[in-house]
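Exam prep: given the inputs below (a chain plus NAP), describe the expected output before reading on.
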Amino acid sequence: MEASRTQSINIGLLGYGTVGSNVYQLLEEQSGEIAKASGATISIKKILVRESDVPRSGAPSDMFTTDFADIIDDQDITIIVELIGGTEPAFDYITEALEKGKAVVTANKQLISQQGFYLFKLSQEKKTQIKFEASVAGAIPVIRVLRESMVAANLTSIYGIVNGTTNFILSEMSKTGARYEDALARAQEWGYAEADPTEDISGLDAAAKMAILASIAFHSTVKLGDVDCAGIEDINPLDIEYARELGLTLKLLGVAKLYQDKVNVRVYPALLSREHPLASVNGAYNAVFLEGDAIDEIMLSGPGAGGMETASAVVSDIVSIVSRRTPGFLEYPVAYKELEFFDGEDVISTFYLRLEVEDVPGVLASIASVFGDHQVGIQSVIQKGRGAHAELVMVFHPVAEKSFMAALKKLAALPDIKSEPRPIRVEGNGEQ
Ligand SMILES: NC(=O)c1ccc[n+]([C@@H]2O[C@H](COP(=O)([O-])OP(=O)(O)OC[C@H]3O[C@@H](n4cnc5c(N)ncnc54)[C@H](OP(=O)(O)O)[C@@H]3O)[C@@H](O)[C@H]2O)c1
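Solution:
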């Protein structure tokens, strides 16, 4: 889409909630700066809402409509900004907008991680643009960095703290020793967690974001369903306490790896050395840590959510669309390779394990022998006495996950093991 110095650009805004109302405010308040940066006057012309007779602050009431046709059929509207969330009707609205050659900006990670590739292709066919910076890590411009600055970086790994809710909960547990349930209640009370936090705590929200990041970084299609994820519901404060004694910090990490032209993307709670740059990302902050042949390591961090922070990423996408006079690099396909996936079981990982065992002679020897039989090397063991049982806190040498999981299966069947063994991966120590 082309913009001249005197051009006026009209936007159709879908949704006037937390982010939508802030986009309106930002475009109003920063109109002078935005005009200088984009070379055009950008304003919202119409706003789609579900109910018309609700009092709303900010935009004038005659801007609101409950009929999508009012927006999509308006020839003056050339950019649709979708901020209603969810997959339906957002998918239909965006599809129709692209079909009509309108550019689209969205913050919708659910939609992009599931239907993004269809929409990217459609936008190319229609010679228009779709941008989605705000769908991952709020105000942090990670998609732009991956798409533009890292094109020659040959990225091999992405580690992401991409869910502010779980990072807040784990930070609280770590800081105060709180149980998971209490830290979640505090997150809800302070507005860092939804009333229904399932998507966040189960790792699904992070999985959607990691699918988007991996697709862009590795130039290959990774969808939400391709990402294995585990959440933080079963985290025990004891693990956080023992990890701290070992100099480790617990985070919910997204991990995307490219190895021998194969991809693996997972989300799981992981322990990081306190010296690792991601270990100091606390509270609701997000961070993305990139490793690549040409860049060594780069970390981007900042607010991962928030109405105004997310709106700022949306507005920067709008400006980028308006300023781009010809289809440039950003309009090239997100995924131009079709890489295969490799199985998580083939990854070499380091594990931490806390085991509740019967405090009887010979128990350590029988556990060591199970691990020895599976070629799993024990790096350190600390024994803690707790009531009638003893606790063993073990860290292992890097090992194929397949071997470690096979050993755990055998271990669980030993009569002296008193609780289900729940290992936690230790990341950031150079394993594959
Ligand atoms: N909030 C953040 O910090 C953040 C951060 C990153 C990305 N995002 C993404 O940004 C998008 C918007 O999030 P948000 O926090 O602004 O959500 P929100 O506060 O719930 O706002 C969504 C708005 O869209 C409206 N809406 C829903 N379905 C609609 C429909 N069919 N037609 C018209 N309006 C409809 C809702 O109206 P009702 O009031 O009638 O329900 C609500 O006002 C989501 O994709 C979200 O994942 C948000």
